[in-house]
Structure formats: structure tokens, C-alpha cells
Amino acid sequence: MRSRRFGILTIMLIISGTALVGCAPDGGALDDDLTWQDAKSEAQQTQREIADLIDADQVIARDEPADGILLSCDATRHQWSGRIVLTLSESADADALARSVADRFRESDRFVVREQEDAPEGSPIIIQLIAPDNEENYIVAPYPASDELHITSASECFVLPEGVYPGGTF
Predict the structure, then answer these.
(1) Among the four 19, 40, 99, 164, which has the fewest Cβ within 10 Å?
(2) Residue 118 lies inside a defined structural domain of this protein
(3) Segment 30-45, tens digit of pLDDT
């Protein structure tokens, strides 16, 4: 269980590091009307869209927690972050599936595709899909030494309503 938590934490740190860079105070236009509920809904919809790119015969289980956490963009803005975990069939190649997701978005204006650089040989590939505003992003990564593919999200940045504490689950 310890290694599972470490892997999830690693992926979340990758997202939060990107989120902090992407949500710098001068980055991205602030949408005053974007609620955390709308940001969460949009991120979940995109997570599902990405997960649905994997052929059903390659997936034996799908875990999609209803709740996620908030990450800080800057002093006033946050992102909703969640995930989907696909347990893959024995015949599935997680790295190839992650690359196939990247290929689907490579020619799109929707995301910039960034592949993991400087990974030790034999490391699983990590694909990052980054929206042009550098805020909304998704990580598609095989879980090391397992049969899982993780799709982790960070929504567009938003401002929480006055009095809403950003800790806990959302």
C-alpha cells in the first residue's frame, strides 16, 4: 500500500508543480463566474473523455472517485484535482496506451502534449496534456510495477466563495 500512495503522491506533485507554474498571478485570465463545482465537472468530463480513449477490451476495472482535492494556483485561486484509475487487462501495454492518448491530442488545439523527459531507462512514460492557458492539465501515467493507468486532472483556476476553506475533499 505504501508504494501505491507514493505513486499517487508523485503524480499529484507533478500536477501541483505544473499548476503552480501555470497559475502564476499573471498567468491565465480569471473567469469570475467559474465555480469550483463547474471546474470540477469540466475536469471530470475531460478525465472521462481521456479514459474512454482506451479500448474497453484493455480495461478490466475503472475507479473514479467522486471527490478530489483543491490545489493552490496562487494566493487567491485554486484548482480541483481528481483522478481515474484504469486497471488494465493482462495483455494491455500501459506505456503504449499512454502514448496513444498523447497521439490523439498531438494535432489538437485543445492541449499541448508534453512527454516525460529525462526519465531513467525502463521508467513508465508520463504524458501531460496542458491547455493553452497553462492552467487546466491532465497527467496520463502507468502506475509503476502494476497493471494500472492513472488519469489525473487539475481544473481551470477559480476563486472560492468567501468563507469556504480549501482543505478537505471537494
Answers:
(1) 164
(2) yes
(3) 567 899 999 999 999 9
